[in-house]
Amino acid sequence: MTAFLLWCHRREDGQVLVLVAVFLMGLVAVAGLVADGGLLLAQRRDLQNTADAAAAAGAMRLDEATYRASSGSVVVLDQDAAYTTAIEYLLGENGVQYAVDVTVTSVEVQLARNAQTAFLRVLGIDGVAINAHAVAEPRSGIAGGP
């Protein structure tokens, strides 16, 4: 019996295969996290660009009557036009929940979307919630330098 146990102990064939399988699963998981992290970062950046553009589009809608009456010294938003412009900009985005808040001095846009994953789906993570926030103020004329 002792000779059999020594023979079994000396036979290490196949033990490396188990270690390689375990480490390979870990390597694939880390590669998936890196790849999905990059995809999520790109989707977050795109969502932020959309929020910035919608807020800027709304902030370009000035109350022209007030602006002209003040000879260009008072710059305020036409709130209804600014809201409509921001919403119209966002209507082309699929799967985005949005909130637009317009005051006389600014347009605030908040966006949320479920970003899709690629490798993490294997672990049951189909998507991650991402958010973006942007605020824009109306401007007119040319900013003076030093």
- The N- and C-terminal alpha carbons lie at a distance of 94 Å
Q: What is the domain total for the residues?
A: 1
| Percent range for β-strand residues | 15-25%
Q: What kind of sheet is the major sheet?
A: 3 strands, antiparallel
Question: What class, by secondary structure content?
Answer: alpha+beta
Number of helices: 4
Q: Which spans of ≥5 residues are poorly predicted at pLDDT below 50?
A: none
Order of helices and strands: HHHHEEE
Rg: 28 Å
The count of DSSP E runs of length 2 or more, i.e. the number of strands, is 3
Overall body shape: rod-shaped
Mean of pLDDT: 85
Q: Write out the strand line-up for the largest beta sheet, numbering strands in chain order.
A: 1-2-3
Label this structure with key terms.
146 residues, alpha+beta, three-stranded antiparallel β-sheet, 4 helices, 3 strands, 49% helix
What would you note in describing this structure?
The chain is an alpha+beta fold and 146 residues long. The chain has one domain (15-136). Helices cover 49% and strands 18% of the residues. It has helices at residues 2-10, 15-59, 64-69, 79-90; strands at 97-102, 107-116, 127-136. It has a three-stranded antiparallel β-sheet, with helices on one face. Helix 2 packs antiparallel against helix 4 (79-90). It starts with a helix and ends in a 10-residue tail after the last strand.
